[in-house]
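User: I'm new to structure prediction. If I give you an amino acid sequence, what do you actually give back? Let's try with this one:
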Amino acid sequence: MLGTMPPHLCYIFLQSPQPISRFPSRLMVPIQRALQLKVTKWGALVNWAFYGDPVSDNFEEVSAKAFFANGRTLDISRLTMANLDTVEQQMRDCLSGNGPSLPHGTVHLYVCTHGTRDCRCGTVGKNVAEALRREISARAEADPKGLASRCTVGEVGHVGGHQYAANLLVYPHGEWWGSLTPEHIPITVDKVIELASKPFSIHSPPLLPLNWRGRMGLSKEAQ
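Assistant: Good question. You get back a string of structure tokens that encode the predicted 3D arrangement of the chain. For your 223 residues, that looks like this:
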């Protein structure tokens, strides 16, 4: 499992207007294709993320969130074919060190639940996503000011590595964990909160070494 994460310097999550469970096996709409062609040149990956209630069926105008290996982030309220070049330049600026950073402690958790691509992601992945939501919600309710209240859970399309389902992507840290089950979730959330509670660097040791697929910003050799 070690080193099975595709190396990247940036991960861009386009907000999907539809649940991942409704995706075909391979979804590639014009805005996604055009963006991926541009950002691949400088080491970025593009995927869809679903956070809850559908917004619309419109895949031509979306919002997005981009995370960078240098710790920068970029929230994009509106992405279309018309402003694609402008948004890409903003991303390049973030990669070069300009741009906002997330507030300390904010963590975004993304589980691959793309079941039409591989049934393991649709079953184990979905179960893990639901277990994560329950665990995060319970901890946030018990301690409204705690770090769990600053965690969000989303579902994403295909990330590669079906055999490692369930796959969990942790950003802005860029940690990829695989082979998770609902039974792993309490300790997984413990580690997520540990990530959020102290300084993090690209050279920090993995917190779940047996489930670690890799980290954003590291080459396969470095992993």
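You can read the tokens as a compact description of the fold. Here is one thing that stands out. The chain has a mean pLDDT of 93.
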